[in-house]
């Protein structure tokens, strides 16, 4: 993966002409970012890093997601090529969801963000308490 | 920062009892994740990595954001301790927004995700085209 721009170095010509720009509202990279960071998208990618899951297993793993929202989220991630849906031709139907190679790459980055938040939850909650007590003074 | 769990190693006792779990609906880490990955939150963090901005500069940098949504987003990120709001006592009022240390840490992870999407936009868009042509067959 080309990470040359993460360090603040000058973008190459290829970067300039071929990469997206999420700050521009018309750039399709923004809708991809929204699929990945949607309320349930981020949790589906995170959960699928643990391996292949059936729909019902995903619903159980991600507390609070409705059948409809999980279905919509999986469709969007499948359309972007991040999730592979495999339907086994058996009765009753057996459908499994897993990450593709690019799904793994994007999910790894989601995981780093999630892990950072999970590990740093206590100082963040302290900041929240401090903020709300300042605001109520 | 403790990143010991990102490599799939066994969590320590401290990790087990002190870190959040975004897959549990009642865990406050989930609402922090939502502030960070909200439609505009992710773009505000990304834009603030470039440095301190005034409100009007942020609105210009993030195409499409409304005054109301930018204000709500900045409030949420300020409450979590990620964004520092500095009001200079001058006339007319001069308010600046910047990342705190923890804001930098979380924004760096957002940036890695954004960069990956921006750099990989072409294969992702090809996957989308392939998916929609398969679905319309």
Automatic annotation (TrEMBL), chains A, B:
It comes from the Bacteria. The keyword Transferase does not apply. It holds the Pfam family HxlR. One of its GO terms (molecular function) is DNA binding. Transmembrane segments: none annotated. Keywords: DNA-binding, Transcription, Transcription regulation. Residues 27-125 form the HTH hxlR-type domain. InterPro entries: HTH_HxlR, WH-like_DNA-bd_sf, WH_DNA-bd_sf. The keyword Lipid biosynthesis does not apply. This is Transcriptional regulator. It comes from Alteromonas alba.
């Amino acid at each position: 993966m080309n990470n040359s721009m993460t360090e603040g170095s000058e973008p190459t010509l290829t970067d300039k002409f071929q990469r997206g720009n999420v700050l521009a509202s018309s750039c399709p990279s923004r809708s991809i970012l929204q699929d990945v960071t949607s309320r349930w998208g981020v949790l589906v990618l995170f959960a699928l890093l643990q391996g292949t899951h059936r729909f019902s297993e995903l619903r159980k793993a991600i507390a609070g997601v409705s059948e409809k929202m999980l279905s919509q989220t999986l469709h969007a991630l499948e359309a972007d090529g991040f999730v592979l849906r495999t339907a086994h031709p058996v009765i009753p139907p057996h459908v499994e969801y897993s990450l593709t190679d690019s799904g793994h790459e994007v999910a790894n980055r989601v995981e780093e963000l999630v892990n950072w938040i999970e590990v740093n939850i206590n100082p963040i909650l302290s900041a929240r308490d401090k903020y709300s007590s300042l605001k109520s003074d």
